[in-house]
Amino acid sequence: xxxxEGAAAPxxxxxxxxxxFGDTDRFGHVNNAAFATYVExxxxxxxxxxxxxxxxxxxxxxxxxxxxxxxxxxPLVVLSRVASIGRTSxxxxxxxxxxxxxxxxxxxxxxxxxxxxxxxxxxADVASVIVAFDYAEDRPVPVPxxxxxxxxPYVGSLPPA
Length: 161
Description:
Blueprint: E1 11-16, H1 32-49, E2 57-66, E3 77-85, E4 89-99, E5 110-113, E6 120-134, E7 139-140, H2 145-151
Antiparallel strand pairs: 1-3, 1-5, 2-6, 3-4, 4-6, 6-7
């Protein structure tokens, strides 16, 4: 049985991420490689907030569409939703947003009803695929039903840019 958006009220996981000086390049904007780290932070925050162990997943795919520059000190929130859940994989969508209200870029990751998701400049859109993985056996394993159930409220699309 796959998770569906109708299973629970749709929510988005919002993860504030600090934009550090070390993330910038000689042109003064955040280097493209830092975006992968921002999304990794959000992905881990979402999965571990659902009680799934760190180290139970492996990244299989990452694609980034850059929209705007980001600079050190800019507020940043990564919004995360689930595009789909396969037998062993979870396809995620992330929007990196410079929120209109900078106060939203502080604190721990948290769930937000879709209607209350932070708005602002969309910095990048990211698609990622993670796979449930048994590191001892070096192979994918099925996504547990309990995790599918906990992911159900996140299934759907992100707020429009």
